């Protein structure tokens, strides 16, 4: 139940931050948070990670829906089998991020991104992206060090 609640909280946080970005960053110059390191810049991403499949929203919606089904199934199995908390947490994070970006794709036909690293050439991202990447890293740790098998 804890991980389900975490998923819901992250989805709400992601959507709230995106609404804030729309209201406060759209049409505005880049805002510096940490000089030379992190800034805020509003963009509308019509693709997936690194703009893969840019402009192919229906395909991305279908792929996300299928992946969400698989992740949800793995999450339920992990909870029922009392897998290590890192495994359950990883699926929770991945689901939250995927659902957050899925909501944007369905509502807007693009995903709202706004965090920008200034010190490297890295894609602009959002809270959902952070959740997905964190979840994948934790799942890799579980697979490598905790002997977890998908």
From TrEMBL:
Pfam families: Peptidase_A8. It is a multi-pass membrane protein. The chain crosses the membrane at residues 58-78, 85-103, 123-146. The active site is at residues 113, 129. GO terms for molecular function: aspartic-type endopeptidase activity. It is found in: Cell membrane. Pathway: Protein modification; lipoprotein biosynthesis (signal peptide cleavage). InterPro entries: Peptidase_A8. This protein specifically catalyzes the removal of signal peptides from prolipoproteins. Belongs to the peptidase A8 family. This is Lipoprotein signal peptidase. The lineage of its organism: Bacteria, Bacillati, Bacillota, Clostridia, Eubacteriales.
């Amino acid at each position: 139940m804890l991980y389900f609640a975490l998923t819901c909280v992250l989805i709400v946080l992601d959507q709230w931050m995106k609404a804030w970005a729309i209201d406060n960053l759209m049409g505005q110059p880049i805002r510096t948070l940490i000089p030379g390191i992190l800034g805020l810049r509003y963009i509308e991403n019509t693709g997936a990670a690194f703009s893969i499949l840019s402009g192919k929203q229906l395909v991305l919606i279908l792929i996300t829906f299928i992946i969400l089904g698989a992740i949800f199934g793995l999450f339920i199995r992990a909870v029922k089998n009392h897998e290590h908390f890192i495994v359950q947490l990883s699926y929770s994070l991945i689901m939250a991020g995927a659902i957050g970006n899925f909501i944007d794709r369905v509502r807007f036909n693009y995903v709202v991104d706004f965090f920008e690293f200034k010190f490297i050439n890295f894609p602009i991202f959002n809270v959902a992206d952070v959740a997905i990447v964190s979840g994948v890293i934790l799942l890799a740790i579980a697979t490598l060090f905790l002997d977890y098998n998908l």
